[in-house]
Specification:
This protein has 470 residues and is α+β, with helices and mostly antiparallel strands. 40% of the residues lie in helices and 13% in strands. The chain is globular, with a radius of gyration of 24 Å. The structure holds glycine and manganese (II) ion.
Length: 470
């Protein structure tokens, strides 16, 4: 973790912005898989991590602005527990490490809130785990809905206003995660062979994160069916002629994430059509990267990429008409159904639990409800310190084509006759991570092979002794 001063300073800023009242920051609990003592990997709440750095379950912090108190609530391990866990830090050690000068037993948190709830506002974030909701209900009473209605928007906004701007120390930790992520992708490209199962390659990608004492920042997507945006099935066999879409990221011990995607041929080369479509996605990504700078809305960057995709598909004969008009009408969403990217930091979709309307949008710029734009997690103006992903893709989804074709939706822009030939194409996504700077943007982490030539070179080296067609 960072030195205690970092956390003290972060809380000072938060207190100034919120002004008065009691801020409640519950940490996460262990979560049993099939019985209480057999848990999922423990993941601390990212906001709790941001303001304390303490990566342990069953803790909560109260920041009482009016009483000028910051209290860590937690329990000392009993001797019965120590028999199973070995020595663990005392609550005093944990509190000191975060610059919190008071600690109390966990149960006193409820008493504290009960005592002061009549004369102070209690501020809390949207609960995303059942145990958060239960704790809040115990303290504040009321139904699930009533608790959700009391979530503090000023607290959300104050936190988003801090966590969106990554400091130099945070940038270097994100780059550490991105560099492990790069290794995971090189591993995928160097280990995939025709005849292997997707899960065999996926397990090697996962191993790279573990090898660096890391975890996954989200479940790996590794599939020959890249057209399914979040495909978590790994049972297909890789065949020459297929492409593998690998979307994976590492999370390091302090919680920072990487998130990248590469798409590569199972054989030594892309087919002609695969290469053409790949280059369209690559050009769309490059045009988006060129546009990244402080002051531009990410929504506009997204639309630049959408137009490039539409233009490219027009050159291949799948679309027709004016790209501006087509994108304005939403015709490109037959091929690019989601958003160009999202914020990244302590969460792979940073702060998504606080609400996309606050993280990715503003009071003036609201999220669209249109197919395509409704999946754009980030629309607001970029500012120095924001960390974002840029991940355009082309996804040929037969079910969506069939649905649109039935009503000839956007027929002025889509060459439906040509789509039959590409029905089984699959999907291509290319994703890298960037930080917005005063001047423009910097790629985070080491460059990872990305052009057709670079990817085919890796695949040729990997498969050199194997006789295959592609
Ligand atoms: N890389 C997974 C996602 O951004 O949703
Ligand atoms: Mn992503």
């Amino acid at each position: 973790m960072f030195s205690s001063d970092v956390y003290t300073r972060r809380r000072e800023i938060l207190k100034k912005r919120v002004g008065s009242g009691i801020i409640l920051l519950p940490g996460n609990e262990e979560s049993g898989i099939n019985y209480a003592d057999n848990h999922y990997h423990f993941r601390q709440d990212s906001t709790f991590l941001y303001y304390t750095g303490i990566n342990k379950p069953h803790l909560a912090v109260i920041i009482d602005i009016d009483a000028d108190k910051e209290i860590l609530f937690g329990d000392e391990a009993t001797i019965d527990e120590l028999v199973w866990t070995g020595p663990v830090p005392s609550c005093k050690n944990l509190a000191d490490s975060a610059g919190l000068h008071t600690h109390r037993p966990y149960d006193e948190m409820e008493k504290y809130l009960h005592t002061y709830r009549a004369d102070r506002n209690i501020y809390f974030l949207p609960p995303y785990r059942p145990e958060h909701l239960l704790k809040l209900q115990k303290v504040l009473g009321g139904s699930n809905r009533e608790i959700r209605d009391q979530v503090s928007v000023p607290l959300i906004k104050a936190i988003v206003d801090q966590r969106s701007y990554k400091t130099a120390e945070e940038r270097s930790l994100i780059e550490e995660a991105v560099n492990i992520t790069c290794e995971m992708h090189v591993e995928a490209m160097r280990s995939a062979r025709p005849g292997m199962k997707e899960y065999e390659v996926m397990s090697r990608v996962h191993q790279k994160a573990l090898e660096h004492n890391g975890q996954l920042s989200f479940p790996i997507i590794l599939t020959v069916n890249g057209q399914t945006l979040h495909n978590h099935y790994y049972g297909n066999t890789l065949s020459d002629g297929d492409m593998v879409l690998c979307d994976a990221g590492a999370e390091i011990g302090m919680g920072y994430a990487g998130d990248m995607t590469r798409t590569f041929p199972v054989g030594k080369r892309f087919t002609n059509l695969q290469r053409e479509i790949y280059d369209i996605v690559l050009q769309a990504q490059q045009s988006a990267i060129d546009a990244l700078a402080p002051g531009i809305e990410f929504r506009e960057v997204h639309l630049i990429a959408c137009r490039k995709i539409f233009e490219g598909l027009k050159a291949v004969g799948l679309t027709k008409g004016d790209p501006h008009e087509a994108v304005e009408a939403g015709a490109h969403t037959l091929f690019f159904q989601c958003g160009l990217g999202h914020m990244m930091g302590l969460d792979v979709h940073d702060m998504e639990n606080l609400g996309e309307e606050y993280v990715g949008y503003t009071d003036e710029l609201k999220k669209s409800k249109e197919f395509g734009l409704k999946s754009l997690r980030l629309g607001r103006k970029l500012e120095p310190g924001f960390v974002v992903t840029v991940e355009p893709g082309i996804y040929i989804i037969p079910e969506l084509i069939d649905q649109w074709k039935e009503t000839q939706k956007h027929k002025a822009f889509i060459n439906y006759d040509k789509l039959d030939d590409v029905r089984d194409f699959g999907g291509i996504r290319i994703e890298d991570d960037f930080i917005i700077t005063e001047e423009g943007t910097d790629l985070l982490g080491n460059p990872l092979p990305k052009t057709v030539e670079e990817i085919e070179e890796i695949r040729r080296e990997t498969l050199q002794e194997i006789q295959i067609h592609n």
